[in-house]
Amino acid sequence: MKEGNRLLEEMNDRSREVFRRVVESYLETGEPVGSRTLTRSLSEKVSAATIRNVMQDLEYLGLLDSPHVSAGRVPTQVGLRMFVDGLLEVRDLDNSDRLALDATTTQGGDDVGGLLDRVGAALSGVTHGASLVLTPKHEAPVKHIEFVSLGHDRALVVLVFGDGHVENRLFRPPAGQTPSSMREAANFLNALIEGKTLSELRGEISRQIATRRQEIDTLAAELIETGMAAWEKDADNSARLIVRGTSNLLGQEGEAEELDRIRSLFDDLERKRDIAEFLQLAESGDGVRIFIGSENKLFSLSGSSLVVSPYMNADRKIIGAVGVIGPTRLNYGRIVPIVDYTAQLVGRLIAERS
């Protein structure tokens, strides 16, 4: 039995109700809750002094905290976790939220990337938070590769997959590359590419370069090694993370300290290299998962919460995830069914297009 659930069972009805009211009020307003406020909402009529004693006991247990002397109480991270695990009442999905999410399926064409962009924007819109969408990795065999020079420090690679999918990716080529060296590199790759995915091609190239380095131009070898390393990171390790609605978070927080925290969070997100960890968080549990504060290992900060759910393809294999990130006082009861429905919606749409 979880420690939080054990504490809940050991509480009497009054302590449990005081705790629940404090957390619910905090999640709704973001403000500390005082004993006088609770006297007006409790089902049992008791004095403010009695409620203060109960709140002190809850503070002693580590479930509540006093941000300022003589102020009301707010839930701690431990308290929020106990509330989510034992007292959270998840609402049914509002019809208006369902319609807003469903509308993304009737816009644009069949491009999966565009679909996920729209889903991310809609998820941010209905939750008034920041949405995260991890796109599925594309592991079809590559049919053709072509490099296009865009300047001395920028180049484009065009990838044509065997299933008809086409991707254009920008990368920084090694210094001194020329159009001819890029053509040589493309020819070299296309001679090896038949029937291989990008990850398989990466291993084959490493072996080929080791044995045939003298047969290709040095610049072409550098281009292949540098470029393929970048492709592999995109295609196999980190996939693509879509972030929408950061302005919602910035607009909600009025104090400079909170603004700095939110900005730092997204700076941290942009720097994060191993975005695949986001998917691993979702894979380690069934359905929607809630990470509160420092439980959220994706970010280095502790002042945020992540509600995340994986989505699956037609073979019931987890290929991505969707989530909402925000301050710890998220409306979890409303956010959970929205994230759950969005994950099911994305999985169904991708299965239909596969």
Automatic annotation (TrEMBL):
Organism domain of life: Bacteria
Keyword Metal-binding: no
Gene3D superfamilies xrefs: 3.30.450.40, Heat-inducible transcription repressor hrca homolog, domain 3, Winged helix-like DNA-binding domain superfamily/Winged helix DNA-binding domain
One Pfam family here: HrcA
GO function term, MF aspect, one: DNA binding
InterPro entries listed in its UniProt record: GAF-like_dom_sf, HrcA, HrcA_C, WH-like_DNA-bd_sf, WH_DNA-bd_sf, WHTH_transcript_rep_HrcA_IDD
One biological process term in Gene Ontology: negative regulation of DNA-templated transcription
Keyword Transferase: no
Keyword annotations from UniProtKB, A to Z: Repressor, Stress response, Transcription, Transcription regulation
Ranges where the Heat-inducible transcription repressor HrcA C-terminal domain occurs: 115-336
HAMAP family with a match to the protein in the record: HrcA
Protein function: Negative regulator of class I heat shock genes (grpE-dnaK-dnaJ and groELS operons). Prevents heat-shock induction of these operons.
Family: Belongs to the HrcA family.
Protein name listed in UniProt: Heat-inducible transcription repressor HrcA
Organism: Alloyangia pacifica
Designated gene of the protein: hrcA
